Amino acid sequence: xxxLMIRHGDPDYVRDTLTEKxxxxxxxxxxxxxxLNLGDCYQSPLGRAxxxxxYCLEKLGKKAETLEWLREFPxxxxxxxxxxxxxxxxxTRKEGGRFGMxxxxxxxxxYWTERTAYLDQEAWRMSEVARCSDLNPLYxxxxxxxxxxxxxxxxxxxxxxxxxxxxxxxxxxFFCHFGITCxxxxxxxxxxxxxxxxxxxxxxxxxxxxVTEERQQGIAIFRALRMGDISHLYAGKEAPSFSAxxxxxxxxxxxxx
Length: 257
Description:
Layout: E1 2-7, E2 11-12, E3 17-18, H1 20-30, H2 33-36, E4 40-43, H3 47-60, E5 64-66, E6 76-77, H4 83-88, E7 94-95, E8 98-99, E9 102-103, H5 109-112, H6 128-131, H7 135-152, E10 155-158, E11 161-164, E12 171-176, H8 178-189, H9 193-199, E13 207-216, E14 219-229, H10 231-235
Parallel strand pairs: 1-12, 4-5, 4-12
Antiparallel strand pairs: 1-13, 2-3, 6-9, 7-8, 10-11, 11-14, 13-14
Helix pairs in contact: 1-3, 7-8, 8-9
């Protein structure tokens, strides 16, 4: 069993579509679609992911099923009643005297690196972010969606691995987003999503590939063969987008802080 997770192209978040650069990236991705062997395709309901998928689908004459749980992970954190989180999201704007909502993974390194709960296999569920958001039920909903889909291909979640009811060499492809990709990997590997949110930067149109390993009959785990592959961009001489990254050095004012 093989899963490809493809992030959308360079985004225009305001219009929920792709920038001109994003369209170039998606076009270059489509040039490799045949070699990628996409198999059954699934896409996020959001416009930027569907616009990216459209290039590959047209190239191959395929269609994709839209899955609601593949949308960018929608958890929002309310920091208004948490002094601790107000230090973690110090750049939060106020409107009408109240702080705006924040995404779960956009916290400062000085905060999460000093609180080991965020990197723990289970303790992240009791973290301050979890307390001040709907993180846990949303995560569980995505996990249920993924497990329900994998069960259709013969892989049934059983503890921290999958029971193989029917061996499969099929491929499924998700056209989705950075945040939700980290959630999917977190569930497959039974690790904290914060660990992946904080340590990975998956560039637009990057390809992440995981496959089953079945060393014991009837028991499968998933292992990564590649993470954030953008070789199609290099082949097309298209510089990778900086989206999903922050400044490499603090003194570089031209990069996002």
